[in-house]
Each structure stands twice: as C-alpha cells, then as structure tokens.
C-alpha cells in the first residue's frame, strides 16, 4: 500500500514538472475561478449603477423643464375652474318658484356659467346629492311653503329624505361636506307660525349635514305689507342681485373671509363694513329704503346660530354679541310694528294709524298683470270689476243666472265687483286660482268709496258698450244694461274687509242699486256692524272644523270660533240672509247632520246649495272633474237636508247652474213662495231708515215678492225663464266666470 501511494505522488510531481508555464497558469486560474467570478460580478454591478445614475441625471436635464411647464399649466387650470355650474332646484305649488328658477337660470347663463333647472321631485337625493360635493357646482334651492308649513307636493319626498338624513347616524354629520348651496324660501307672513318654514328647514338640514352656505338664506313674502321690498317678486330680485354677485366671486376663486366656523371678529367686521357699503347701493327697479332682505355674509353666523340653537349646538362667546343684536332688532320690530295698518271698527268707521301715503298698495305689478290677463278691470289699488257671463247671456236673451230665478234680479243689469281683492281664505275651489292677495286685516293703502263706485260703474258701462251691435244682443236689454240696478259684491276676495264697506253700501243704495254681499264667515264683528244690505250671504263650505280647514284653508288660527260666531252674527240680522253651500264630491257631501246643526245656529232665511264649479287644472288645487257632483246628486243632497230641517223646504231650482234653494217657510204665504225681492220697496225702506237715524227698522218680510211658477222646484222649466231661449254650447270651452 505504501508502495502504491509513493508511486502516485511521484507520478503527480512528474506530471507537474512535465507542464509548460502557460499550462500551469491556466491550471491555477481554473483552480481559483470562484474569485474571478466574484470580482467580475462586482465590477459589472459598479458599472451598472454608474450607468443608471448617469442616465437619470441626463433625463432630468432634458425632461425637467417640460414637466415643470406641465405642472404649472395644471395648476393654472385648477385656479380657473372654481365653479363648474349652477343647479337650481325648485319646489313649487302655484308656479312662482318655478318661474323664479327659470329667471335665475337665464341670468346665470348670461355670466357664462352653465345652469340647470331641476324639478325637485325628479331628483333622487339619496343617489345624487352627495355627488354635488365634489363636482364644483353650486346648488340653489327655491322652495315654497304650503298649507300648515308643509312642503309643496313636488318637494315632499326631498324634504322628508333631507330631514331624516340630517339626524341619521348612518349618513354622518359630514355627509354633504363640500356642498355649496344657497336657499331662497317663498312664503306668506300672514300665516303666523308657518312663514317660510320649508325654506328655513331645508337650509338647516343642509347645514347640519356640513353643507356650506355661500350666502345667507333669502325669504320672499307674498304679503306686500310685510315684504321687505314690497312684493315677493321684489324680494327675489334683491336676493338675486346678491346671489349673482357672490357667484361671480366664486367663479374667480374668491373665498369668504368670514365663514360659519370663523372666530376672527376683526375679519368679520371688515367684511361686514364692505357688505354694508354694498347694501347701501341702489338695487335695480327697487327704491325701497328698508333693510335689504339679504343680510351681509358676515352675519352668516347669525342665521346659522339660529339653526344651531335648534339642533343643540354650542354657541361661542364671540358670537353672543351678534345674537343679542339680532334679538334687539327683532324686538324693536315687534314693538314698533313693521307694517302700517288700518283696524276695522264697529262703526264703519276706521282707525287710521299712520299716514295714508306711507302704506303700500295691495295690487303689486305682478298681481296686476295676472288679474288683468284674467279679464279683471282693476280699480285703484285694491278693487276690481268684471263682466259676469250671465250678464252677457241675458243681453242676448239666453237666460239669466240663478239669482234671477231665485230672487228676480235682472242679470243684464247686475255689476259684479269688489272693494277688496284680498281674502282671508285660500279655498281649494277658488275660481280665481288663488291669484288674489290674502290677509287677516286691512294693512294697505285705501281708496275712497266714492272713487271706487264711480270707476266701477264707468268700467262696467264700458264693457257693456262693447256689446253694441253684436249679433244676438237685444237692443232693449242693451239700453237697460247701461243702467246698473244690482251689485254683486262677490267677485273675488273679502268685501267686508274694506274699512269703508258701510260707506260703499250706502252709496250703492243712494244710486238705487241693490246690494248682494258675500262673506267667508271669518269677520263676525264686521258682520254685526254692517249696515242693512239687500241680501247678506255667508259661505258655508264645510260643516266641521277639519273639513273647513281642508277646503277653505283659512289664515286665522282661530278660524273655527270665528266661523261659528259669524253664523251667530248672521242670525242677528233682520234683513235677508243666506247660507251658501258649495258641494264638493268626496270632500263635504257626507256631513248632513253637521250641516243641519249649523243651520240651526244661524237661522238663515235661505240656503243655496250649489255643486262646485270645476275651473280647470290649477297647481293651487287638487280638484278634478271627479269632485263635481251631478245635478241629480245635488238634488238628492238637498232633499235629505231639507227633511232634517222642520222649518225649511225646497223652493226653487236652477238646473243650468246646478243649484237649488231651500227657503224658510215664513216665505211661503198661503201655499205660495215669495222668495223674490221687491227692489223698489227695499230702496224705500233703506231711505226711511237712514232719514230716521236708524230708528225705523225693517225686516226681510217687508220687501219680499212672489216667485213665478217657472222658478219653483219641480217645474218643467227647471228654473229657466221661458221668456228667453236656452242656448247649448257645443265643442267650446265653458266660461266659468260669474257669481
């Protein structure tokens, strides 16, 4: 074994000695190849890193300026696009808010800013409202307040969702953070306790969800007396001017220095000074010197704090001064009054509180335009006259109205007018679609009764003269029509609100014109103080408190006690009195027992029962043709009601007007009805009473006249005067004007 090992070693040594130097070097490299590989990898890595570093530096030099330019261009673009557009949402019942929305949209577009008008009922807030927080738009909400402070029909769902979201923890208090919005509310301050409720709530709920007001909420008032600028249109104009100015500032990227979270009093004061100077500037088409409807943006906290107070937020000490100032201003307004007023008095007289020249007119330019379009001839600042369709009909010998059938008036000699376009109700079946103003007391400029009557007669005669030479007009009736013999104070509104109504009635009687006055049973003291009229009506549109509120929509909070007291006041009258019942199917035709109790309360001489007249579709009413009863349905109602009244019977019928007359049996003399009126005798009795200083009175039985057979219930004529010729319209829109 040792021998073999020695031999191997000797062979190896021999082989090494046999290799050349070159081969030995290669063999050595091979044996140390691992070190060589490591060194090569290290060198390659160093080379690669140096290459990358050099390339990066070269890239920065070549591309850097281009990147910088692109960044600057991007930054410049962001600085310009601060406002992508304006979305204008409207909640409207009568179309006013919708009209304002369209008007505002056009104004915004003239500034080069995109604008979109959206019916709020077509907008899903759950899916889309949060998107408005990030799309750089401004949302404007023009919302009206409807009955009892509720939203309009098209805004019900949106308001319900917004209210629930504002208190739902699942949405969170910052759900609408980033939403920029403005609110303008439409309301009527006559509705105490509900004025602009919806606008206030929408503003509050958006704020509670962290929406950002771009300006203080605006409020438009339909009550021209308390409206800051004289009308709701003027209120909107003043707000619109402020809004457009603010919009331009936003488009330029300007931000308010005094936001709702600001606690820097000095900056707020500086902003306030600037805005007050701006407020001092005249507003186009508005010369009002009153405080501008739109408060300065520095008063944002004042509006917001009112909302915070209702939502349980904490008020900062710095804001306490603003709150106290606002309280003082509100208190001074309440003590000093913010409207001039004429109180109705018992003696017709009137209690003047301020200079007449300082009061506002009842008829605003917008209202004047609307009423003129409807055919009214307006008189002065609060009166009107219109030609009744029955006047036109009788001029042609085509029949008279139900008053001709029931009481013997000559329809072609009747003037339909009112000394007060204002009303204390907003009835669902109003023939005027609630375009007339509303109020609970007289607070407007007042025209003298003499001037109203003079102009009313003149305008009425002018309208009659337009029928001269018209085919079918009877010459003798045309001549008679120029001499007014009857006056129906039932055109529109509440005539008894006019403080000089007694003077006006006396003037009518002086001209030997009979007086038919209709009141809505909300002014009991004025009914008691009313001088004798030929016939006094009270509208009894419902027999229970709930249905009266639903149908008449009265402004008075104590409407039901006033209603009952008005019926009692009517019962105290000695002259002819009438209950006027308007039947609305599915609304008030089931209240038979309640009606009989009301009749017992006022003991009227007559009860007119008429089916409601459908005046066409109106956003102010939900009535349809389905609510109009057929004549036979009215007859059935009247028969059932008469059976419940022991001292009353059905006397007359006017089928053409869908109307029947129930009369007290004291007008049935020896089996014959005496429902007609001896108008000459009435004028003699009124004159005698005036000359005696009120000592010589008279009653309804002193000037009654016999009713012709054709006017009686059950007659084949059904109340149509056989002297005339009945005319049936075909394929023509029915004229529903008239008393």
List the helices and strands and how they pair.
Layout: H1 2-18, H2 21-31, H3 33-80, E1 85-91, H4 96-110, E2 115-119, H5 125-128, E3 137-144, H6 156-167, E4 180-187, H7 197-208, E5 212-213, E6 218-221, H8 232-251, H9 265-280, H10 300-311, H11 320-336, E7 342-344, E8 350-352, H12 365-373, E9 377-379, E10 383-386, H13 389-395, H14 402-407, E11 414-418, H15 449-465, H16 475-481, E12 486-489, H17 501-510, E13 514-519, H18 524-528, E14 535-539, H19 545-552, H20 559-571, E15 576-583, H21 592-602, E16 606-611, H22 631-643, E17 648-654, E18 659-664, E19 668-669, E20 672-673, E21 676-677, H23 679-691, E22 704-705
Parallel strand pairs: 1-2, 1-3, 3-4, 4-5, 4-6, 11-12, 12-13, 13-14, 14-15, 15-16
Antiparallel strand pairs: 7-8, 9-10, 10-11, 16-18, 17-18, 19-20, 21-22
Helix pairs in contact: 4-8, 6-7, 15-17
């Amino acid at each position: 074994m040792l021998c073999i090992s020695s031999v191997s070693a000797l062979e190896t040594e021999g082989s090494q000695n046999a290799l050349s130097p070159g081969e030995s070097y290669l063999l050595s490299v091979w044996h140390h190849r691992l070190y060589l590989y490591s060194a090569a990898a290290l060198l390659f890595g160093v080379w690669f890193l140096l290459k990358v570093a050099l390339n990066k530096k070269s890239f920065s030099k070549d591309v850097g300026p281009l990147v910088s330019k692109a960044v600057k261009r991007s930054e410049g673009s962001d600085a310009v696009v601060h406002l992508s557009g304006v979305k204008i949402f409207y909640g409207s019942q009568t179309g006013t808010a919708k009209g304002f929305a369209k008007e505002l949209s056009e104004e915004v577009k003239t500034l080069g800013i995109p604008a979109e008008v959206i019916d709020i009922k077509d907008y899903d807030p759950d899916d889309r409202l949060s998107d408005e927080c990030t799309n750089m738009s401004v949302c404007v909400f023009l919302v009206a307040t409807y009955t009892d402070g509720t939203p309009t029909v098209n805004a019900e769902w949106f308001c319900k969702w917004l209210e629930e979201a504002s208190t739902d923890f699942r949405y969170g208090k910052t759900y609408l953070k980033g939403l920029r919005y403005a609110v303008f509310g439409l309301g009527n301050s006559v509705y105490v306790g509900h004025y602009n409720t919806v606008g206030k709530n929408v503003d509050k709920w958006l704020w509670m969800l962290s929406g950002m007001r771009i300006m203080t909420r605006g409020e438009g008032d339909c009550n021209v007396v308390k409206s800051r600028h004289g009308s709701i249109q003027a209120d909107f104009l003043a707000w619109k001017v402020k809004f457009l100015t603010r919009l331009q500032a936003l488009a330029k990227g300007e931000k308010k220095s005094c936001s709702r979270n600001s606690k820097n009093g000095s900056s707020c004061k500086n902003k306030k000074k600037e805005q007050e100077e701006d407020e001092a500037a005249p507003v186009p088409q508005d010369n009002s010197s009153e405080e501008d409807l739109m408060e300065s943006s520095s008063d944002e906290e004042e509006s917001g704090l009112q909302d915070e107070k209702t939502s349980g937020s904490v008020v900062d000490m710095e804001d306490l001064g603003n709150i106290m100032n606002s309280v003082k201003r509100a208190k001074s307004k309440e003590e000093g009054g913010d409207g001039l007023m004429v109180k109705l008095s018992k003696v017709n007289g009137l209690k003047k509180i301020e200079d007449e020249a300082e009061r506002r007119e009842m008829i605003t330019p917008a209202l004047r335009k609307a009423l003129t379009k409807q055919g009214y001839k307006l008189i002065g600042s609060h009166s009107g006259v219109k030609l009744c369709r029955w006047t036109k009909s009788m001029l042609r010998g085509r029949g008279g109205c139900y008053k001709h059938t029931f009481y013997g008036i000559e329809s072609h000699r009747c003037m339909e007018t009112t000394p007060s376009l204002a009303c204390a109700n907003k009835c669902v079946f109003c023939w005027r679609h609630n375009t007339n103003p509303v109020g609970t007391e007289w607070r407007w400029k007042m025209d003298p009764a003499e001037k109203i009557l003079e102009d009313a007669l003149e305008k009425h005669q002018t309208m009659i003269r337009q029928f001269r030479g018209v085919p079918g007009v009877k010459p003798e009736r045309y001549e008679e029509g120029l001499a007014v013999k009857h006056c129906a104070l039932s055109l529109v509104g509440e005539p008894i609100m006019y403080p000089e109504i007694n003077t006006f009635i006396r003037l009518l009687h002086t001209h030997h014109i009979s007086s038919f006055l209709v009141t809505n049973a909300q002014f009991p003291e004025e009914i008691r103080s009313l001088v004798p009229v030929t016939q006094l009506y009270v509208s009894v549109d419902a027999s229970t408190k709930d249905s009266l509120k639903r149908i008449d929509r009265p402004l008075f909070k104590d409407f039901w006690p006033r209603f009952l007291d008005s019926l009692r006041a009517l019962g105290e009258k000695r002259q002819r009195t009438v209950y006027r019942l308007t039947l609305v199917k599915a609304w008030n035709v089931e209240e038979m027992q309640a009606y009989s109790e009301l009749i017992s309360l006022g003991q009227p001489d007559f009860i007119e029962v008429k089916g409601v007249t459908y005046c066409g579709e109106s956003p102010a009413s939900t009535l349809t043709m389905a609510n109009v009863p057929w004549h036979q349905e009215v007859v059935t109602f009247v028969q059932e009601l008469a059976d419940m009244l022991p001292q009353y019977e059905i006397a007359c019928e006017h089928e053409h007007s869908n109307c029947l007359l129930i009369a007290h049996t004291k007008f049935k003399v020896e089996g014959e009805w005496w429902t007609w009126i001896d108008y000459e005798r009435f004028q003699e009795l009124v004159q005698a009473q005036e000359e005696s200083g009120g000592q010589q009175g008279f009653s309804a039985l002193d000037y009654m006249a016999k009713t012709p057979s054709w006017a009686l219930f059950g007659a084949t004529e059904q109340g149509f005067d056989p002297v005339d010729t009945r005319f049936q319209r075909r394929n023509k829109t029915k004229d529903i004007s008239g008393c």
